[in-house]
Amino acid sequence: MPTPNRVLIAEDSSVIQNLVKKILEFQNFEITAVKNGEQVLQTLQKEHYDIILLDINMPVMDGMESVKAIRALADPAKASVPVVAITGNARNYTEEEFKEAGFNEVLMKPLNFDKLVMVVKDLTEK
């Protein structure tokens, strides 16, 4: 049986974090969840992930700072991992700004869970 794709979720809302976790676990993804961008970078130092879901508004280090730090990592495999922005305030950034920062895709809150699953599957197909 193939190993499940590993997903790192950075979301400070426990409700959204738990919903996303349950939905993706149901699709046979292995989930690790953290609360901010700094924890994403700490976790990435130790582990490999197939995709990262980043909330834009988080304490300590937000999603925009976090994706730029991921793209600047010395390890090319980790620096090129697909990263998806999750945001409720897309009006603060244009789609171009998300792309320039290094995001592969942007999902709007309230999350459409069918689209979430589709995007995660599309970006992690091996």
Summarize the structure.
The chain has helices at 14-26, 37-46, 63-71, 76-79, 95-101, 113-124, and strands spanning 6-10, 30-34, 51-55, 83-87, 105-108.
Can you tell me the residue ranges where pLDDT is under 50 for at least 5 consecutive residues? none
User: In what range is the share of β-strand residues?
Assistant: 15-25%
**What's the mean pLDDT score?**
93
Number of domains: 1
For the sheet with most strands, the description reads:
5 strands, parallel
SSE arrangement, N to C = EHEHEHHEHEH
CATH architecture: 3-Layer(aba) Sandwich
CATH superfamily: Response regulator
CATH class: Alpha Beta
Give structural notes.
It is built from six helices and five strands. Helix 5 (95-101) links the parallel strand 4 and strand 5 (105-108). Helix content is 44%, strand content 19%. The protein has a single domain (6-124), classed as Response regulator (Rossmann fold). The model has no long low-confidence stretch (mean pLDDT 93). It has helices spanning 14-26, 37-46, 63-71, 76-79, 95-101, 113-124; strands spanning 6-10, 30-34, 51-55, 83-87, 105-108. By secondary structure, the chain is of the alpha/beta class. Keywords: Phosphoprotein, Two-component regulatory system.
